[in-house]
């Protein structure tokens, strides 16, 4: 069949791009290789309990009716209502280091007060850094690479504060070790510290359901179990796809949210040697442990929405040699948002803990060794998490665990790299005409950013040419 646009991947970016194009009477097909939508930001049910995959919180929060900012732009572009996301702001989060703790929420003033109290000689520099961040155009697709560490160090001279600022931003959006592209740093700083966290009580399911509903209402087609085996091209131009079942579809434009390396490999005939020009894969992945509880976390004295912690003298964000790096991590509760009725949270009482993991270790285990490794590392991670929280072990009623191998299964990203390749294709352009990258490897980060990526690429390379 012939389509105006085919989109690979029914994650948030692909769905947003599909909606945007379908509004303008484009014949659009979204292909998803799995049996459900969402990629890493999806949902599942296990032993009678509901769980979200990937979602700790949605960044870029704005109150209903706000006219500016990423969330308002997204809703306007997709013609969605505020109620379609039903976001509730966080109660409050923290960055916890051995000698310091910085509390923050969706009001920058709290973080400024915390820095002023604990790092009084740094507050002026922090405020000047914030001004530069607010003035920086992170939507410019042609921004050159700049070291975020080097720029931040012009304003922040205390290494502990420097690491405490980088810790949440790296954990929630950096594909590179130790440093960040300053544009990526700005995107994450704005989304976490200037705008903040929120979440619907129904979890990611509500957002995905409304995106699919909107897409189909506009005539868009969604095919599950539609894995792409090859991207077809002729004379340097993408012209369609061949699916794993042998079916072929033609198109005028092809958008891929599969990742830059993964998309590149789909353009290479099976059996060909790997090209030296193919993108480098990401190497940063995570383990996530999930604890279902018999009481709300707040009833146990756990009030924070998210805790980013580091136990070492310096924060080391890098691939690890051990199966898991227990020196730092994230603890999140989907219950600790300002819900009118916390009992409506679809997941029930839950804690989630995330640490950096070694993809090479987890990806290469046999099934038996894989199960044994999970049984070995789950209690070690729980022990570290327990050091940061009031006692909760006696209230655990069920558990689950994700590894880089799980992430690879959900996303197809080589190495289970959550944030994709280290080098982003901000323009969205690839080595083939009419083939464009959207999503993680385009470079707009987070749930809102991912959807804006799909919209931006659709606007730039399809709608602007109609």
UniProtKB/TrEMBL annotation:
The superkingdom of the source organism is Bacteria
Q: Where are the transmembrane segments?
A: 443-463
Catalytic activity, EC: 1.3.99.31
What's in the keyword line of the UniProt record?
A: Membrane, Oxidoreductase, Transmembrane, Transmembrane helix
Indicate the enzyme's highest-level EC class. Answer: oxidoreductase
Q: Name one GO molecular function term.
A: oxidoreductase activity
Q: Which InterPro entries match?
A: Amino_oxidase, FAD/NAD-bd_sf
User: Is the keyword Secreted assigned to this protein?
Assistant: no
- A Pfam family for this UniProt protein? Amino_oxidase
Q: Which SUPFAM superfamilies match?
A: FAD/NAD(P)-binding domain (SSF51905)
Boundaries of each Amine oxidase domain copy? Answer: 12-256
PANTHER family reported for this sequence: 4,4'-DIAPONEUROSPORENE OXYGENASE, PHYTOENE DESATURASE
Q: Which family does it belong to?
A: Belongs to the carotenoid/retinoid oxidoreductase family.
Its recorded name reads Phytoene desaturase (Lycopene-forming)
Q: Identify the coding gene.
A: crtI
């Amino acid at each position: 069949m012939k389509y105006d646009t085919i989109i690979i991947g029914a994650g948030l970016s692909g769905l947003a791009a599909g909606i945007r194009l379908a509004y303008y009477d484009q014949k659009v097909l979204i292909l998803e290789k799995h049996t459900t939508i969402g990629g890493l930001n999806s949902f599942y049910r296990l032993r009678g309990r509901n769980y979200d995959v990937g979602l700790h919180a949605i960044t870029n929060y704005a109150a209903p009716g706000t006219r500016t900012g990423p969330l308002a732009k997204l809703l306007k572009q997709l013609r969605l209502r505020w109620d379609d996301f039903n976001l509730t702001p966080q109660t409050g989060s923290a960055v916890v280091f051995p000698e310091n703790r910085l509390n923050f929420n969706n009001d920058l003033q709290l973080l400024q007060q915390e820095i002023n109290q604990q790092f009084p000689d740094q507050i002026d520099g922090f405020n000047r850094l914030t001004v530069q961040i607010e003035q920086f155009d992170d939507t410019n697709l042609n921004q050159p690479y700049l070291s975020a560490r080097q720029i931040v160090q012009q304003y922040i001279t205390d290494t502990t504060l420097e690491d405490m600022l980088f810790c949440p931003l790296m954990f929630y959006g950096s594909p590179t070790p130790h440093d960040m592209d300053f544009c990526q740093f700005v995107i994450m700083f704005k989304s976490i510290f200037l705008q903040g966290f929120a979440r619907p009580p129904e979890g990611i399911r509500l957002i995905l359901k409304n995106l699919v509903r909107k897409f189909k209402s506009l005539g868009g087609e969604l095919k599950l179990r539609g894995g792409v085996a090859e991207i077809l091209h002729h004379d340097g131009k993408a012209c369609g796809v061949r699916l794993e079942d042998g079916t072929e579809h033609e198109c005028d434009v092809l958008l891929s949210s599969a990742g830059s390396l993964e998309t590149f490999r789909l353009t290479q005939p099976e059996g060909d040697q790997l090209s030296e020009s193919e993108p480098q894969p990401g190497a940063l992945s995570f383990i996530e442990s999930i604890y279902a509880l018999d009481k709300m976390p707040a009833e146990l004295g756990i009030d924070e929405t998210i805790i980013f912690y580091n136990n070492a003298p310096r924060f080391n964000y890098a691939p690890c040699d051990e199966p898991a790096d227990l020196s730092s991590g994230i603890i999140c509760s989907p219950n600790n948002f300002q819900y009118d009725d916390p009992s409506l949270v679809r997941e029930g009482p839950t804690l989630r803990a995330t640490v950096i993991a070694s993809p090479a270790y987890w990806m290469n285990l046999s099934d038996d060794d894989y199960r044994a490794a999970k049984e070995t590392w789950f209690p070690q991670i729980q022990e570290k998490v327990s050091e940061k929280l009031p006692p909760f072990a006696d209230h655990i009623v069920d558990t689950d665990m994700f590894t880089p191998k799980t992430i690879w299964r959900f996303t197809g990203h080589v190495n289970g790299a959550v944030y994709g390749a280290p080098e982003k294709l901000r323009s969205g352009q690839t080595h083939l005409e009419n083939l464009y990258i959207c999503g993680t490897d385009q470079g707009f980060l987070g749930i809102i950013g991912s959807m804006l990526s799909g919209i931006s690429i659709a606007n730039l390379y399809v709608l602007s040419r109609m």
